Amino acid sequence: MTLKVDENEQGAWTVLRIRGELDLASAPAVRQSVHGAVAEGRHDVVLDLSGVFFCDSSGVNVLIATRRLMKSCGGRLRLILPARGAEDGSHVNKVLGALGVRRLFEVYPDAGSATDGISRPLTA
Questions:
Q1: SS3 label, residue 31
Q2: Beta carbons within 8 Å of 75's beta carbon, 6+ residues apart
Q3: How far is CA 96 from the centre of its chain?
Q4: How confident is the model at residue 1 (pLDDT cuts 50, 70, 90)?
Q5: Residues 64-101: tens digit of each pLDDT
Q6: How far apart (Å, rounded) are the C-alpha atoms in residues 56 and 70?
Q7: 3-state class of 29 per DSSP?
Q8: How far apart are CA 122 and CA 107, in angstroms?
Q9: d(CA 77, CA 16)
């Protein structure tokens, strides 16, 4: 399956909905989508990973690089992981946890809570 990235705006946030496999072949598409948003002056980005069913080290690297980019431009990054996120969660959540980098990200259960300005991130 190929990776698909859909973009929409929710208030001040750009939500990039990612579906498919996040791996060596597809990570550049995510990187390009994030860089495109930042180049257009949108510095608050949510990566919706609820449709990602596989993530390898290249996928993790693009997430970490995105975090670094958002910090360097004064922006914010939030991730959406499916199901109960940190409690049970997805393949992506398990990979991030196994590598010890899950705590680097603000994780939310859905786009509404990631962009509402009220909800708190899920705990790691």
A1: helix
A2: 38, 43, 44, 45, 69
A3: 11
A4: low
A5: 999 999 999 999 999 998 655 444 457 788 899 899 89
A6: 22
A7: helix
A8: 6
A9: 11
> Contact at 8 Å (CB) between 47 and 6?
no
pLDDT in tens, 35-67: 999 999 999 999 999 999 899 999 999 999 999
What pLDDT, on the 0 to 100 scale, is given for residue 43?
A: 96
Residue ranges of the alpha helices (H) in the chain?
27-39, 57-72, 91-98, 111-115
In eight-state DSSP terms, residue 103 is G
- Residue 90 has a pLDDT of 73
- Residue 117 φ then ψ, to 5°: 80, 0
Which letter does DSSP use for residue 121 in this model? P
- 99, two tokens: 């590598």
Tell me the residue type at 115. T
